[in-house]
Design a protein that fits this description.
Elements: E1 37-41, E2 44-46, H1 48-59, H2 63-92, H3 99-114, H4 121-137, H5 140-150, H6 153-158, H7 161-164, H8 176-183, H9 189-205, H10 215-231, E3 239-244
Antiparallel strand pairs: 1-2, 1-3
């Protein structure tokens, strides 16, 4: 206190700021309030239940089971993202390429959840493949429509909604229609697989068929694949604690 200043007078020429750091108030995973103690997993504050769950996920299950679960979760996310993208494009008439990034985040998160947050090159490749398939699958209805529009009249009639619904015209055995239907070759299982393979190949190549005009779309797809890859990188599980609630964890060593 300077000379001539009374003990109760306010001082505006000197400010003092508190330096006390407070600890976290809620779990970074389940968002429940931290009661008495908390832990840190890779720098994120968590409650004891989430810490035990993370340790259980790391030690339980088999590699094959985790990969199957990651493939199933990622496949569902890829189909959902593809359906959303096609619905937006069909209703608005615009190709909203930014949805590709959302598909990458959805698939990447689903693969990571199915793998119990293991991560690694195997899951990264899986996430990238499923993301690209999900992005390209939205072109399948357009390809099927284009094939039907260019098909001969007889083939187009066989692919009409009435035929899809199971309606079969009745023709006399000796009539021309009956002879034509009797002589029509049946679709074999091998031919069906070839057709499906060609359809898949066209869908996977669709983003590049636009040439240089679609360079922005290709770049956005590349960024979406990078998001899926980055989400599933391997991160070692580092658990610290317990720490008392209200007190910050020790600062990391430099």
């Amino acid at each position: 206190m300077s000379e001539g200043t009374s003990p109760g007078a306010l001082q505006f020429d000197k400010a003092e700021f508190g330096t006390e750091r407070r600890g976290p108030a809620e779990c970074g995973q389940c968002r429940n309030p931290l009661v008495s103690a908390y832990y840190q997993i890779n720098g994120q504050p968590v409650c004891e239940r989430c810490k035990l769950q993370a340790q259980f996920d790391q030690s339980s299950g088999s590699g094959a089971g985790r990969f199957v679960a990651a493939a199933v979760f990622g496949g569902i996310a890829a189909l959902a993202g593809s359906a959303i993208w096609y619905a937006v494009r069909a209703t608005t008439g615009y190709e909203v390429g930014i949805i590709a990034i959302a598909v990458g985040l959805m698939v990447g998160g689903a693969v990571r959840a199915g793998s119990k947050r293991r991560g690694g090159p195997l899951y990264q490749v899986l996430a990238v493949v499923l993301t690209y398939v999900g992005i390209c699958a939205q072109y399948v209805p357009d390809i099927v429509k284009a094939i039907r529009d260019q098909a001969p009249p007889g083939v187009a009639a066989s692919a009409s909604p009435a035929a899809d619904a199971g309606a079969t015209p009745v023709s006399a055995p000796g009539s021309p229609a009956g002879e034509a239907s009797a002589g029509a070759p049946a679709v074999s299982a091998g031919g069906l697989l070839v057709a499906l393979g060609l359809l898949l190949a066209l869908a996977l190549a669709a983003p590049f068929l636009g040439g240089f005009q679609n360079i922005i779309g290709v770049l956005i797809i590349g960024f979406a694949l990078w998001q899926a890859w980055k989400t599933n990188r391997r991160v070692p599980l580092e658990i610290e604690g317990p720490f008392r609630v209200g007190s910050p964890p020790p600062a990391p060593a430099s």
